Amino acid sequence: MPLKWLGMAPFALFTFLFLLLPTLYIVVGAFRTPLGEFTFQNILDLNTPSIRSAYWVSIKVSVLSALFGCLIGFGMAAAVTLGSLPKWLRNPLMTFSGVASNFAGVPLAFAFIATLGPAGLITIWLRKEFGINVRAYGWNLLSTWGLIITYLFFQIPLMILIIAPALDGLKREWREAAAMLGATGGQYWRMVALPILFPSLLGTFALLFANAFGAVATAIALTGPSLNIAPILLYAQIRGDVLGSPNLGYALAFGMIVITGIANAVYIWLRARSERWLK
């Protein structure tokens, strides 16, 4: 093997041990019984009301968090990239986005519970200072919408990081040509900019969907078993409870791999189309 490939050896080993090998183990386990015999029953058992409901809630949370993340993140990225905001704001925003997009799991759940939970700082402050009881208005952090809002903390920064280079790729000549032909700002965005950015936007939406659908630690730490979503149901099956079935858990994980794999494949395909347009 040429020496130049030795630098890739640690990455290849890491990928095999912590990505390919566990995935293969899950796929094989999804089609086996506890005795090691081949079966399709685990896949068929996914078509039960509780599991269908868990997948549906997970898809709902992922779609909504990805949608709001795309809308808010696009607006923020456009403001610092193409808007009239001071240019010095871009570097701090991109630095914060790089950190926040990876801030998840137990620390993120604790931060939101301590801030917006039933005894959170903002919850108590609103009640004491203004007499506003947010729980009386239906607010509950340990719910579907609470999980969506929590996910937005890393969905919005991820959107900013991905869409900012695409916005930078919009050439000034296109806007000037549109203005010379009499197009307004709205017409430029509707007829020129957004059609060019559409593959990037749709691809980023698919990536954010996969990012939220595969989030496990944040959901478990925030809601525990109170919310029926696929990652929590998967955790309950694999951890070995009395009613748990590890092989059914493998089938659940296999279904999640298929869904996130499709979303990532869509993102890669649309990203390639977008790069061709921007060139």
Automatic annotation (TrEMBL):
Q: Does the keyword Secreted apply?
A: no
List the membrane topology term(s): Multi-pass membrane protein
What does the UniProt entry say about where the protein is found?
Cell membrane
Keyword Cell membrane in record:
yes
BP GO terms, sorted = transmembrane transport
Residue span, ABC transmembrane type-1 domain: 55-267
Q: Name one Pfam family in it.
A: BPD_transp_1
The record's section on InterPro entries has:
MetI-like (IPR000515), MetI-like_sf (IPR035906)
Which spans are transmembrane here? 53-82, 103-125, 145-167, 188-209, 215-236, 248-270
- Provide one Gene Ontology cellular component: plasma membrane
Keywords (alphabetical) are: Cell membrane, Membrane, Transmembrane, Transmembrane helix, Transport
Q: Which family does it belong to?
A: Belongs to the binding-protein-dependent transport system permease family. CysTW subfamily.
**PANTHER family reported in the protein's UniProt record:** INNER MEMBRANE ABC TRANSPORTER PERMEASE PROTEIN YDCU-RELATED, INNER MEMBRANE ABC TRANSPORTER PERMEASE PROTEIN YDCU-RELATED-RELATED
Q: What is this protein called?
A: ABC transporter permease
Query: What organism is the protein native to?
Result: Seohaeicola zhoushanensis
